[in-house]
Amino acid sequence: MGSDRLNSLCEINYRTNFPLQVRQGKRRMKKPKPAKRSALSRRDFFKSAGAGLVASELVAAPANGLPGASATPIVPAAKSASPVRFKPGSGLTQISPNLYVLRDSCNVYVLKDGDHALLIDFGSGHVLNLLGQIGVTKVDAILHTHHHRDQCQGDARAVAERIPLHVPAHERHLFEDAENFWRNRHVFHLYHVANDFFTITHNLPVAGVLHDYETFHWGPHEFLIYPTPGHTIGSISLVGVVDGRKTAFTGDLIHSPGKVITLHDLQYEYMSTDGVDFATFSLQRLRELGPQFICPSHGEPFASVDAGFTDLISRMREWVRAYAPGTTLTLDNHPFAVTPHLVASYQTTSCFYAVISDSGKALFVDYGSASHNFIDSSLKSLSVHDRLRFIAHTVPELQARYGLKSVDVAMPSHMHDDHLNGFPYLARHYGTKVWCYDNMVDILQNPRGNNLGCTLAEVIKVDRSFHHGEKFKWEEFEFEVCHSPGHTEFQMAMFAEIDGARIAFTGDAVHPADGGAPYQLRHNVIFRNWVESDSHVRAVRSLLEHEPNIIAPGHTKPYVANKADLEDLKRRVEQEGQYFQDVIADPDTNFGLNPSWARLYPYQLAAKAGSTSTLELRVRNYRSKPMHLEAGLVLPEGWKASPDVATLDVPANSDGKTGFTVTIPDGWDPARPRVAVAADIVADEQYLGQVAEGVVDIEFT
Ligand SMILES: [Zn+2]
Ligand SMILES: [Zn+2]
Ligand SMILES: [Zn+2]
């Protein structure tokens, strides 16, 4: 059943056309999540654009409902942010008792419940002129599958008519902060070629955010918000039962059986097949949900889901094979058993390991993105406040092939987003507990506190923590946790005997060297991750002391530990301290290695206009004598800090801190929602200047 079915459906062509009743509906929608913050409040938006738009569009409305008309110019709405000049050539088509479609600049789906409607995508907004024909007097919400203009170009009218817009979480900034996007999007030197250029030209206020894997409730309906990146990287599909059929509104993931609307939208990076990788993965995962009917944004709704998806996956796979031989699609990644109770996924961005007990419970070490493409592409599409998008992977395969029954515990090898990006998902969907090494607790629970490499922009609640050298038992296995600094200060090594092998989970402490290097193992130095001159030495020594048989690293396949290679690495990291001495002017070289030795905490303060908060100056004194500091905050005009100058004495080789209160003026300009602040510092009578800084996100209520 495909377009045949649709052809047999009746076209609804009524001449009557009346304005919708406009009222704020509280009925039906269960707690749509309010937008947290927008530079332009909804009230301001209505003040500046809303009223005029209502008036002008409603005047134009009576001409818009004529049946069967071809795209016809209409009078542009004066002062409108998005004047509607044309209208679609056909009217509403009934698909099933309560589901209709209008073929506008995209397919606009109308789900009806009595005299209320829910719209999926909006096109030009012409649909509002037609809803009276089917007895709809109130539109409760518009849900968008993605940000492209053809989906939402008429949204200003919806806003004017007080219809709430709900948008995919990872594309929210492309709606409500579209003008900022346009100010910052590279056009010159273009290598990130993703078609985010197809975003709206003006800001649209967002009333609700559609979060991946959550459910949108409306009247008797429930829609699973399912991440289906591909056509855009933030795209979602909405999956729920409509008129007795499991229906998926898929945006532009698929156009029709075996086809996409464009291939160009499936390329984000120069030359790459990255979007095809996402699309094939999304198609496969969505198919596994068992939808019976697909409602695409372009093309005809269709029921031949299995064949249609299979054809599209295989056609895209064949093109990738021909164009970029050797490319592995994320869809084709599979875990493997290292030993009977230890399963490794090494093609995921960061390896993750499942220790699976005889009871079926699993302890995960790390759980990040599904592949390198899934993290690299997501990082490039992030807005300042967004979190790296997580797309679920591998657990169903561990259940099917390796006897996993529950994900009991997840432990990060270190605090990097590529290794723990999936932890919030595990906690929410499997009730997984998070355990970690002591010094990661604050980073996971207060991710805005520090400015460190690769911090995930989402709070992870920690259920248990371990100190250096602590041993614990989980199921039939024993583990030991050790501090393993170097790659980052916030990393553990964990040792366990599994199936007779002594396994070391090492995170990113050591990797096999690239071919051609004169050694087998290498370390890595990322100064922003908090590196001190002996960090790597301590990690490699600890590894040697524990004499592992197998190293289970954070990237690349597990490998057999070789003591001579580790000894060789130890010699080289010990020698590195001398290079640091040679090249850094300060004899206490850690001041030249750690950019965070003096820092403001939290680095990203969030505070309301008119409120007073505390900002701490935190200092690690690397001198072998006490350090005396004086510091004052450098703030935007009108802000107040107390004290004006703080003094701080930090003992030798120790940490110290002092606090300031910071008051943000009540009438702070909403057009400046994020500002930088700095600390001007004198240390031991030497004027260092503004060597520490942070940012403040101002919240407006
Ligand atoms: Zn699109
Ligand atoms: Zn890392
Ligand atoms: Zn890593």
What is the level-2 CATH architecture name of the largest domain?
Answer: 4-Layer Sandwich
Placed side by side, the strands forming the largest sheet appear as 1-2-3-4-5-6-7
The CATH C-level name of the largest domain is: Alpha Beta
Helical region count?
16
CATH topology of the largest domain: Metallo-beta-lactamase, Chain A
Shape: globular
User: Over the alpha carbons, how many angstroms does the gyration radius reach?
Assistant: 28 Å
How would you concisely characterize the structure shown here?
With 701 residues, the chain is of the alpha+beta class. The protein contains 16 helices and 36 strands.
List keywords for this structure.
701 residues; Metallo-beta-lactamase, Chain A; Immunoglobulin-like; 3 domains; seven-stranded mixed sheet; 29% strand; disordered N terminus; binds zinc ion
List the helices and strands and how they pair.
Layout (H helix, E strand, L loop, with lengths): L2 H5 L34 H19 L31 E5 L2 E5 L3 E7 L2 E5 L17 E6 L5 H4 L2 H6 L4 E4 L3 H5 L1 H7 L23 E3 L4 E4 L2 E7 L8 E7 L2 E7 L22 H15 L4 E4 L8 H19 L12 E4 L2 E4 L6 E5 L4 E5 L6 H9 L14 H8 L3 E6 L5 H4 L2 H8 L2 E5 L3 H5 L18 E3 L3 E5 L2 E7 L8 E7 L2 E7 L3 E2 L8 E2 L12 H11 L4 E4 L5 E2 L2 H21 L6 H4 L4 E4 L2 E5 L3 E10 L5 E8 L5 E3 L3 E5 L3 E10 L10 E10 L2 E14 L2
Parallel strand pairs: 4-5, 5-6, 6-7, 11-12, 16-17, 17-18, 18-19, 23-26, 29-36
Antiparallel strand pairs: 1-2, 2-3, 3-4, 8-9, 9-10, 10-11, 13-14, 14-15, 15-16, 20-21, 21-22, 22-23, 24-25, 26-27, 28-30, 30-34, 31-33, 31-35, 32-34, 35-36
Helix pairs in contact: 7-8, 14-15
The structure holds zinc ion (3 copies).
